[in-house]
Amino acid sequence: MRSMTSNAPAEWAELPPLRWGLVGAGGIARSLTLSLAAVPGDVVAVCARNPERTAAFAEAHGIPTPLTDLDEMLADDSIDIVYVATPHSVHEEPVVAALEAGKSVLCEKPLSHGLTSTLRCIDAARASSSTFMEAMWTRFLPAWRAAESWIEAGDIGEVRTLTASMGFPAPTDPTHRLMDPALAGGALLDIGVYVLALTQRILGGDPEDVQVLWEPTATGVDGQASIGMRWADGRMANLSLSLVSDMEGTAVVSGTEGAVAVPSFHRGEEVHLTRRREVIRTERFPHLVNGLEHQVAAITAAVADGAQEVAGMTWADSIEVAALSQRIRDRMGLRYPFDPPT
Ligand SMILES: NC(=O)c1ccc[n+]([C@@H]2O[C@H](COP(=O)([O-])OP(=O)(O)OC[C@H]3O[C@@H](n4cnc5c(N)ncnc54)[C@H](OP(=O)(O)O)[C@@H]3O)[C@@H](O)[C@H]2O)c1
């Protein structure tokens, strides 16, 4: 029997041990596999295209069945949930196939490369009776739950402004998924989805005005972007993205009485309340493994309850975030080779 981390919430021990099948055997597939040290569940199969790399991944993580044929994985009735962890441009096909095969699905962010494709994934979920969620793990972090409870309690007064940045110097290899237009590379889809999901959560998905400045990489995808949004009631968001700069990454929700700040917000482990620029309260929430465990516990509970959606990241949330992202991409005029002709 697998040993669990001792610091996980007691109620997680009551969750059923789901049998997971991974589609993709890269960096985030590894992180999700490690997060199962805190939540009941086992990875029983992994599927990717390259047989040697897939077998090596399976061996490294004690996964009994490495596969290169998705249909073979989906035909395995013992698999409860499929985790789609391929590049964004190739999320839709495994998501739809897994839902049609009756599996629950957790799909990496962004749900897909564009609004139309995102809607096709959600349609497949609606047509199924399975649980389905975009893996917006930030929303399940205790630091953000604390930040939101302080905001709801009125600790910062009336929310007026959101500022958030996220960026790191990405590999410049033109074939890397972050640089390759054919894999829907670029900052907006990879890290912009975090600032947009935060914006949608705090301010809503319906800004009246969206302005964008951006700079392409040598491969033509978006390497840096500054996004400004204004809502009809005067609330504003200022968002910065970069695949060039090593950004500090704090998100600040500011109101008429103070501000809530989460450093390195997408993986936040602490939250500060400030008034007149003085920190008056700080709480820390260290990850139990790597932070993904909170979303894994949430979707495991939903599967156990027979719920199709997970309250922290609903299908409507995914659609609003994808619509915002598409709106920004359309303003940029950024197109991928697989986009249909206009
Ligand atoms: N939640 C987070 O913190 C987080 C962090 C990183 C990434 N992500 C998301 O997770 C997804 C995967 O990112 P990653 O960094 O794990 O990528 P990665 O390390 O490049 O791994 C991608 C995996 O997908 C497989 N794959 C299947 N079809 C592919 C195709 N057409 N082209 C390339 N690879 C393909 C690759 O194996 P084969 O080549 O053998 O098929 C590989 O195992 C992305 O959507 C990304 O946004 C989330």
TrEMBL record:
Domain (Gfo/Idh/MocA-like oxidoreductase N-terminal): residue spans on this chain: 18-133
Top-level taxonomic group: Bacteria
Alphabetic keyword roster: Oxidoreductase
A Pfam family of this chain: GFO_IDH_MocA
Ranges for domain GFO/IDH/MocA-like oxidoreductase: 144-260
InterPro entries: Gfo/Idh/MocA-like_OxRdtase_N (IPR000683), Gfo/Idh/MocA_domain (IPR050984), GFO_IDH_MocA-like_dom (IPR055170), NAD(P)-bd_dom_sf (IPR036291)
Family classification: Belongs to the Gfo/Idh/MocA family.
Name this protein carries in UniProt: Putative oxidoreductase
